[in-house]
Amino acid sequence: MTPQAADSAIVSVRDLQVGFQTTDRRAIVKAVDGVSFDVRRGETFGIIGESGSGKTTIGRALVFLLKPSGGAILHNGLDPLAMPRQQFQNHRRDYQIIFQDPNAALNPRMTILSSVLEPLELARAGSKAERLQRAHEAMDRVGLPQDLGERYPHQLSGGQKQRVVIARALTLRPKLIVCDEVVAALDMSIRGDVLNLFAELQRDLGLTYVFITHDLAVVSHISERIAVMYLGRFVELGPTEKVSERPLHPYTQALLSAEPRPLPSTMRGNNRIVLQGEIPSPIDPPSGCRFRTRCQYAQAVCAEKTPDWRELMPDHWVACHFADRPNFSPS
Amino acid sequence: MAAAQPAQRGSEAVAGGPQALMSVRGLGIRFKTSHGVWQATRKIDFDIAPGERVGIVGESGCGKTITGLSILRLLPNNLAGLDGSIHFDGTDLASCSTREMRAIRGRRIAMIFQEPMSALDPVFTVGHQIAETLRVHTGVTKEEARERTLDMLRRVGIASPERRIDDYPHQLSGGMRQRVMIAAALICGPQLLIADEPTTALDVTVQAQILELLRDLSETSNTALMLITHDLGVVAETCTRMITMYAGEVIEDAAVDDALVRPLHPYTSGLLRSLPHLSPRHGKLPSIPGRVPSIMDMPNGCRFKARCAHAVAGCEMEQALLDAGNGRKVRCWRFRELDLPGALQHAATAPIAAMVASP
């Protein structure tokens, strides 16, 4: 049966596997290959990784837009896939997802108000007047003036469109929102506004977020905990301060040092680790530790044995054979 | 306007020194649209010295890409007019003939774009596409072109170039494709490379490789680099000078370190403050209120004044790009009285910055 989930967990993921068949049907791409974690109620759980790491696949699987090929995802200790159809549909309202590109998420032929109303109509929530009221409340909540409701997406700026998408996700009063690269398409000066809005909504509505991004600065600003993903697996998971200041996994260290910093040259330091090559194909991932082909510390054992997922320090997990050796981290 | 110091000059007076490779003066671009003529950029002034690495930063729609394209005269058909001059090593690119332009484009000034997959032709091998530039411009033999292509692929860090030279673009990863683009751009040994968001489509670890490559190649071959990006971090890591654009105008031009530590324009300062890198974790991020004015409805005078916390009466006057000393320029008549925060004010509390600062 399903393993025990902590009481505080709003989502428990156990040994999650998601595979896709290649177009020639000869191979299975394991986009997510054995990931376990809990998302705690009320926290922001950040998942960071490069393209092809499987972070978006996890996000979609969390709200059952994709069916896992193995393992379990529990919502509040319950397995939604075991629910009867109607109950599953009702249950899904509590778990929403927001995507990167608001242009793709909004129908250009629908007014803003009808887009915000649509989830309520699909859910047949309340009377028409109540639905309208809730849609207006949601728009209010994200700081959109009501007269914008009559407009079409092309008449809005990028930041406003992303607010519309957030308002739409809020109408059904979800408990958790998966945010997949939600600020990546926005200009710098607006990004801060939208991130502030997410923080404010969390405080006021008690929301839980799973924040998926490739942007280290964004994820460490908003998250309580960060998981670092590489080729379908987590390599590190821990409190944001620990992961971003004392990273244990060589990949996390490289990722942090590769981030371009808007600092004057005197403050940037020279301790950059530039990784060789690029992320290998998930069709045929390296044996043992998947990062070993690009790791400066790789030894023979890294090819032979998959590193255990260990809690090396309280609440700080890592999958590396050598993470606990002294003098391991670069000075 | 502030006290009439002798050093203070209008933008027109700041001529490109004899050392400038390229001097852009009063560059403006106008487009015809169904709603009339739009002024995309105006009064763009800047110089690039040989081998210098200059970052052009700004948000979408500020005119940074179109400025890069106008240098190579790669402008769309609805161009209504190109004002000003672009003096490049003795030729005015804004007014020279198409034939002269063709001899410069690809040979003396090269450009790379954000998405290498759409810039490479899928039906030709990468070797063919790199060698093509060389053959068109120099008429070397096929054998020699191949030899030099192999050498170039090696220089941009492609492992076993003998194998890769006959690959098609789809067989390469994103990072390798961008290396191929750089190889094609540099094969003729240009004096200036314009790179428009060259790493935006790449992962951060690959981005670090490409930026390092651009920096190294620019240094070893003394190629000037004009790096167009929205990412202040990329500019800080790669360039020595930073030109900030806003709503079609250059608003600040300074050495990167100066601009980051003590920005003179409120917009530059606002951008720096809005970066999550430089803000305390979980705190409220400062942001710039409002939005960029529409190209159809540009305000008089300072174009940033509606969003500026320091706007006063007088900001509606026409703003010139003023000389601020030490080779700095700023389009804000109040720059002497304002003391604006830069990157350092926040760095002490910033998580990532703190990690790097400790040796």
Describe this structure in words.
Helices cover 32% and strands 22% of the residues of chain A. With 331 residues, chain A is an alpha/beta fold. In chain A, the strands form two sheets. Chain A has an eight-stranded mixed β-sheet with strand order 5-6-7-3-8-9-11-10, sandwiched between helices. In chain A, β6 (176-180), α7 (188-205) and β7 (208-213) form a beta-alpha-beta unit. In chain A, α4 (112-122) runs parallel beside α6 (158-170) and α5 (128-141) crosses α6 (158-170). The radius of gyration of chain A is 21 Å and the shape is globular. In chain A, 47% of the residues are buried. Chain B is an alpha/beta fold and 359 residues long. Helix content of chain B is 31%, strand content 21%. Chain B has helices at 64-71, 98-104, 116-119, 126-138, 142-155, 161-164, 174-186, 204-221, 232-238, 256-261, 266-273, 344-347, 351-357; strands spanning 22-33, 36-48, 53-57, 79-88, 91-92, 109-112, 192-196, 224-229, 241-246, 249-255, 322-325, 328-330. In chain B, the strands form two sheets. An eight-stranded mixed β-sheet of chain B has the order 6-7-8-3-9-10-12-11, sandwiched between helices. Chain B has a four-stranded antiparallel β-sheet with strand order 2-1-4-5, with helices on one face. Chain B is globular, with a radius of gyration of 21 Å. The termini of chain B are far apart. The model of chain B is unreliable at 1-16 and 347-359 (pLDDT under 50). Chains A and B meet through α7, α8, α9, α10 and α11 of A and α7, α8, α9, α10 and α11 of B.
